[in-house]
Amino acid sequence: MTADILIQVLVSGLLIGLIYALVAVGLTLIFGVMDIVNFAHGEFLMLGMYASFWAFALFAIDPIVALPLTALLLFAVGVIVYQTVIRRILKAPMLSQIFATFGLMILLRGLAQFFWKPDHRLIPHSLVSGNIALGPVQFGLPQFVAALGAVGVTGALWMFLHRTRLGTALEATAIDREAATLMGIDGQKMFALAWGIGAACAGLAGGLIATFFPIFPEVGSNFILIAFVVVVLGGFGSVTGAFLAGIIVGLIEVLGGFLIGPEYKTAIVLSLLLVVLLVRPRGLLGKA
Amino acid sequence: MTTGTNFSRKAAGTGALLALAAVLPLAITEPSQQNFLILILMGAQMGVAWNIVGGYAGQVSLGHAVFYGIGAYTSTMLLTTLGLTPWIGALVGGLLAALFALAMGWPCFRLKGHYFAMATIAVAEIMQILVTNSDFLEGAVGLYLPMDRSGWTWLIFLSKLPYYYVILGLLVLTVLVSWAIERSHIGYYFRAIKDEPEAARALGVSLTRYKLIALSVSAFLTAMGGSFYAQKEMFIDPGSVLATTISIKIALIAILGGVGRLMGPVLGAVILITIEEYSRTLFGSTGSGTDMIIYAAMIILVAVFSPSGVLGLLGDVHRHLGRHLPGAKPEAEKAEKMEVRP
């Protein structure tokens, strides 16, 4: 009986944790490549959700089918953000960097509110819906598909970083920018690429959860703090670390909420952030 | 030009500014306009207090709402449960906030840069969640101040004018503390910690000790601002005194005006609060998002084009003009350059 509940809790923690992982890999990639913390990352996810919503509302395209489109769109948004704002603050003091991306966060929220109203929106009938029952454990099919998609995208990103020339160049820039430049890698291009990929990952996460999560301009705030915790726990810049940490954070959040009370689940996750920062600031797999 | 005349000119300028601030509400008598002036002074006070740790010592806190909230909740609880005057309640709140700052700073100051900033966000968010779920502090419902009392003993007034002078007094106090720190040896240590931490350590400056001093003084003053907020609004809840948006606003005021400059945050508050209030009235309801867009555009522009804030920008213009005047003053130029470094 209690074991069933525990398994149920662990499964939902795992499913949401994989989504957290996908949001966080983009954040950690950007930080790893250029040492900038992107406060607007949750807003990329929000834009991904709206892309799915409008594809569905205007053209009756299912969110799952629209995913490649969402990814392309958000890649473009990421590159544009880099070219217009981030490129200009690369050498600015940390405070300016924090506030530039923080300003972007508010700007994107404001624009979403201006054009699409602050209402909560839902996508009513999508291809994937309903529940799966595995013995005593039940979970929603949309959640399951989203988690599966998150694993697929994170895996694809890992392959890209480790098995392609362009990906290796990006990794090299993250490890040592100057040495990479000397090897003939165009740093500016790599930075733009990191923002494009980072935004696309967050956008894909948004598209994946759009089938079961309400869509509204401030939805990113639910994810950004958690994504920070995941990035810190995984180790700044480590994609593999973020993947593992995402699962751990998902499990801790759901388990903690179950044991202590759902109203404290964010506080529990944030306490984890403090513990990691104090005990092991480089995280699970981060560079020393 | 010697430093002496420069100093007396600055003092005269500050005196004139203070005199103007003192008579301003006598000319502007419309309550909503007076309220607007109060909001500016409140913003300036928060910004100047933040500047002590964020500007002089270079430790970027994005969790100052935690101190603001401690001040607001302490004085309000002491008033509603024990009937203690907020004059004492605000001091108790300040002390509690300073103690909290010591407890929080001790571990967090091992972290640098982004890490420290994120840890402070986390602390403030955790506090907001705890208070929201605390029955003792009335949780999400919030606390009302007693409506049946008024006058200077209880710091509750029916008109705006007394509030104006109270917050002006608190701002002057905060600026004086900040000024005293800037000019003392502590201020030099702060700047050393910010600009050359390794060199400062090598010279035997205890980094953690001076960072803790900066944070606790800043926390004390921020908490007093929080107590004032409670007295003025007569109602507090976690969303109004503990939210991360408040932490961000506090830091933003300082950044906008000019980090690490005594009067930078005052200028920042004038600009930010004016835009915040007028974008709302000009472009309609908050729901449309226009106020957020303007606010955000301003943040991004300052971050991208003027890392040293508007005051830094003015300094650049001044230097530029000065170069073309006969008898340009190199030592003033040098002094400004040192200050500009954010």
TrEMBL record, chain A:
It is a multi-pass membrane protein. PANTHER family: AMINO ACID ABC TRANSPORTER PERMEASE PROTEIN, BRANCHED-CHAIN AMINO ACID TRANSPORT SYSTEM PERMEASE PROTEIN LIVH. One of its GO terms (molecular function) is transmembrane transporter activity. The keyword Lipid biosynthesis does not apply. The keyword DNA-binding does not apply. Belongs to the binding-protein-dependent transport system permease family. LivHM subfamily. The chain crosses the membrane at residues 6-32, 44-61, 67-86, 98-116, 136-161, 192-213, 219-236, 267-285. Keywords: Amino-acid transport, Cell membrane, Membrane, Transmembrane, Transmembrane helix, Transport. One of its GO terms (cellular component) is plasma membrane. It is found in: Cell membrane. GO terms for biological process: amino acid transport. This is Amino acid/amide ABC transporter membrane protein 1, HAAT family.
UniProtKB/TrEMBL annotation, chain B:
The chain crosses the membrane at residues 37-58, 65-84, 90-109, 163-181, 212-230, 250-273, 293-314. One of its GO terms (molecular function) is branched-chain amino acid transmembrane transporter activity. The keyword S-adenosyl-L-methionine does not apply. InterPro entries: ABC_transp_permease (IPR001851), LivM-like (IPR043428). Pfam families: BPD_transp_2. It comes from the Bacteria. It is found in: Cell membrane. The keyword RNA-binding does not apply. Coiled coil: none annotated. Keywords: Cell membrane, Membrane, Transmembrane, Transmembrane helix. It is a multi-pass membrane protein. This is Amino acid/amide ABC transporter membrane protein 2, HAAT family. It comes from Azospirillum oryzae. The lineage of its organism: Bacteria, Pseudomonadati, Pseudomonadota, Alphaproteobacteria, Rhodospirillales.
